[in-house]
């Protein structure tokens, strides 16, 4: 990404397709873990059947994935806060980046990493 003019209030959302995929996966994982008898899983086709199988036979693995995802998202969020500080962003955009990265994860963090402002002129 080319250098852009420094904006201390820089904040942007990930592409809509990333949001749709993340929402799709959150719903699938929630239903797989906590409500495997839900009829909604039937609409997920092979993924829904796989989720039901995993819940029935490998529940511990699902919990491990859940905990690992939580740790990863918290770590990404903290790193987003560090990047915002390093890039000189204000407090509100930093909070927004951290919250968005906590929810969206990698797609949000890549938007922030891609922001390369020119050095501030003091």
As for the number of domains, it is 1
Specify the helix fraction band: 55-70%
What string, H for helix and E for strand, traces the elements in order?
Answer: HHHHH
How much strand content do the residues show? Answer: under 5%
Poorly predicted parts: none
- Please give the count of helices: 5
Q: How would you explain this protein's 3D organization?
A:
With 122 residues, the protein is mainly alpha-helical. It is elongated and about 55 Å long. 68% of the residues lie in helices and 0% in strands. It has one domain. The protein has helices at residues 16-34, 46-57, 59-87, 91-104, 106-114. The mean pLDDT is 88. It has five helices and no strands.
Topology:
Layout: H1 16-34, H2 46-57, H3 59-87, H4 91-104, H5 106-114
Helix pairs in contact: 1-2, 3-4, 3-5, 4-5
Which key features would you list for this structure?
122 residues, mainly alpha, 0% strand
Outline of the structure:
The protein is elongated.
